[in-house]
Amino acid sequence: MSVFHEFDDVDKFTVGTVGRPGDRTFFLQVRAEGTRIAVKCEKQQAAAISQYLAKVLSDLPPAEDRPIAGAMELTTPVDPVFVLGPIGLGYDRSNDKVLLQLEEVGDVDENGDPIDEDRGHVRLYITRGQADAFVKHAAQVIDSGRAECTWCGNPMDPDGHACPRMN
């Protein structure tokens, strides 16, 4: 039996990492209705969600609600229910909330159709204020990784960097 959760009123939606720069694991975390869910994701997936949310928010009036400062950090322990695959995003005008559908990664056939129909699924609605807070926090989390080498532009590991442009 796969994981399935649907939340209409979310207390918290955030992104964070576990591990040191260069060896970080990214997680999306949702807290709603007394339940806390974490989904393991890739940095690029977190960035894509953030970019989409920023675009949606640019077309809407500024949010009036704001999450409490400091409420965007991951709550430990972080035990993912699945690894993120397909992402669905949308805006629901009827309730003035952003819809996110997070699905478990799974195998696909030669046509790109899912082989396993029983994949994990988390569906949630967040307010414009929560979306705005996610965008700002995601930018900080994503940018807090490894510094770029001034010569080659590749990320530098904390233990050193073998720059291909330096002999």
Structural overview:
The chain is of the alpha/beta class and 167 residues long. The protein is built from two helices and seven strands; from the N terminus they run E-E-E-E-H-E-E-E-H. Helix 1 packs across helix 2 (128-143). The model has no long low-confidence stretch (mean pLDDT 89).
List keywords for this structure.
167 residues; alpha/beta; 2 helices; 19% helix
Return the structural class. alpha/beta
Mean pLDDT: 89
Give Rg in angstroms: 18 Å
What order do the SSEs take from the amino end to the carboxyl end, as H and E?
A: EEEEHEEEH
The general outline is globular
Instruction: Please count the helical segments.
Output: 2
Strands ordered across the widest β-sheet: 1-7-6-5-4-3-2
Portion of residues within helices: 10-25%
End-to-end C-alpha gap: 55 Å
Number of strands: 7
